[in-house]
Amino acid sequence: MPLTQIKATIDRFEGHKGVILFDDPNLGSLAGQELVLPKRLLPLGVGVGDVVVLDFLTDEQSTQQREQIARTVLEDILNGE
C-alpha cells in the first residue's frame, strides 16, 4: 500500500491548539493552508518551527463496512424494499 506523507511546519500555538502550516510550494493549492489541531494530538515536545510529517492511511475495515452498507442500501432500492 503506497504511503502518502505531507511535511508541514508548526507555525504557532493558540491556547491549547497548534497551527500547522503547509508551506511546501509543491503542494499546489494546499500550500499556504493551515490546519488547527488540539496540542494533545501533536508529538510531545514539538515547538514552533518544527517540521512534522502527516501520514495518510486508509482504515480498511471502516472502508469495507461503508461499502457493505452502500451495497445493502442499493439492493434494497433495486428490490423495492
Question: Could you give the order of strands across the largest sheet?
Answer: 3-2-1-4
Estimate the strand proportion: 25-35%
- The second-level CATH architecture is Beta Barrel
Helix and strand content put the structural class at alpha+beta
CATH topology name: OB fold (Dihydrolipoamide Acetyltransferase, E2P)
Q: What's the overall geometry?
A: elongated
| Amino- and carboxy-terminal Cα gap | 38 Å
- Number of helical elements: 1
Biggest sheet statistics:
4 strands, antiparallel
Share of helix among residues?
A: 10-25%
Low-confidence regions: none
Count of all domains: 1
The overall pLDDT average reads 90
CATH class designation: Mainly Beta
Question: How would you explain this protein's 3D organization?
Answer:
By secondary structure, the protein is α+β, with helices and mostly antiparallel strands. The protein has a single domain, classed as OB fold (Dihydrolipoamide Acetyltransferase, E2P) (Beta Barrel), CATH 2.40.50. About 25% of the residues lie in helices and about 35% in strands. The protein is built from one helix and four strands, in the order E-E-E-E-H. Strands 3-2-1-4 form a four-stranded antiparallel β-sheet, with no helix packed on it. The protein is elongated and about 55 Å long. The two termini are about 40 Å apart. The mean pLDDT is about 90.
